[in-house]
């Protein structure tokens, strides 16, 4: 439900769009208890209003999803770059080539260094280049990728399921802040099977002091900006946060009705910039620094993923997200008596 009512993006999204764009229909229970089905052809206003609505139009009970054919392996090419100019140029070229690349992502390790990864599915693999990275004794994926900054370009064949879960064991790179020695070979061999800990367990064991420390120093944000604004965005993220690695995941944003669409009337490539970790920027303050990034994202017609802390005012939230169709459906379906509006579910100040 979160992939539809919220948002879902992955490294094939430059080719297929967000998860919502892979859906053919939704079935919802509305405020009056009735069950309705919607699609592009049948009840299209509701169909386009559902994504990003966070359960404020109805309860999602089923979805029809278009399936993408899969193969046994992912052939993964690692391309290290050592200047910001090369990162922007190569990343854009690879993201704009969906016929060649089934998957595209980049991990940015500093202002001037990154590893761009492009991949395609295959049933055949060179035996000496197969790397089942998902096994618990294997190095964390982001640490493995970082080695290509020194050893240069490379190719591996990764089992498909292992590829899809490449960031799972280390929670991208957040586990290094929880277990600093977690990537140590001895720890991986003896205890790697028991990580990552369940998020619910981490929350349960957090006292108020630890929770406050996390809120003041730990950043978990995904900002979606037009690919053409990537260079500016990286500078803003460095100046305000200085968190590395950064995750870059391109996606096609289609010109369709709903809360999220390009500024113009054409489909447009966007990029998800994921910042997860402890901010090292001088003068970092959680709320003011996040507010500055939110302001930049609004300025370039971007969007903020709403699972994370957002400090937007109600007016700024309406500026970032197109509420026209959403409000029309709220009124038509008489949602006010049953469901809060999106802002009241996601804004940090309102939730507190």
Automatic annotation (TrEMBL):
Q: Is Metal-binding one of the keywords UniProt gives this record?
A: no
Q: Identify the keywords attached in UniProt to this record, alphabetized.
A: Oxidoreductase
Occurrences of domain FAD-binding PCMH-type (ranges): 1-70
Q: Is Lipid metabolism one of the keywords UniProt gives this record?
A: no
Gene Ontology biological-process entries: steroid metabolic process
Q: Kindly give the InterPro entries that the UniProt entry links to this protein.
A: Diminuto-like, FAD-bd_PCMH, FAD-bd_PCMH-like_sf, FAD-bd_PCMH_sub2
- In which domain of life is the source organism classified? Eukaryota
Q: Which GO terms describe its molecular function?
A: Delta24(24-1) sterol reductase activity; FAD binding
Extract the signal peptide range.
none
SUPFAM superfamilies given for it?
FAD-binding/transporter-associated domain-like
Q: What GO CC annotations are associated with the protein?
A: cytoplasm; membrane
What is this protein called in UniProt? Answer: FAD-binding PCMH-type domain-containing protein
Q: What is the native source organism of this protein? A: Potamilus streckersoni
